[in-house]
Amino acid sequence: MVIYDPVSGSSTGSLSAPSVTGAIVSGSPVFLAWQPSTWPKAPAKWDASLIATVGTIIKESMLDEIDNVISDAGGNLEHRGHVVAIALLCALDAISSYGYGRKNGKQIPPFIRAHFPKEYHPHAKALLKLYRHSMVHSWNLFEASILPGNDPVKGAGGSLSFGLLHLREAMSKAGADYLKKLETSKTLQANTLDRYRKLRASAKG
Fold first, then answer.
1. What pTM value is reported for the model?
2. Domain boundaries in the chain?
């Protein structure tokens, strides 16, 4: 888009920026984690290089962006809880779908039990039902609560609570554990390659 000076009528420059989420429509793209059209083509069979590719996607287009929101808030999430929580839960849905399939969230509990810190394991189903489903579909929480800090996960009387920063740290550990196990698990490798292949094939540009 060219910018014009309304007084002189002459052009003063241009204002343009590439899409940060969609297809690359011109130029020579490099690998940008948040633009699937720039992802390396899926290998015909499992290749260990895919571990680094998926790791970059998880880090740069999911967790780093969420961290930027937390940082912009100065670490105070008291009035940003819904936004950050929904982003974290959507990221959890996306990350877990690589190794456990896209199952409308049903892949989240097995992912939590396999890769999250142990204190989250007993609450795997509750995290799906009380948090993911409620927040993504209804915005609010009805049988659960989120605290803005590092409060540990705790269940009592059918309810569940934890701190957002505690969940963010747990997700970092879970992602690292998943990528580590991806080095040797044939099941995770097959599922991850299949998921990556489908995502990459759907990209335009």
1. 0.82
2. 48-202
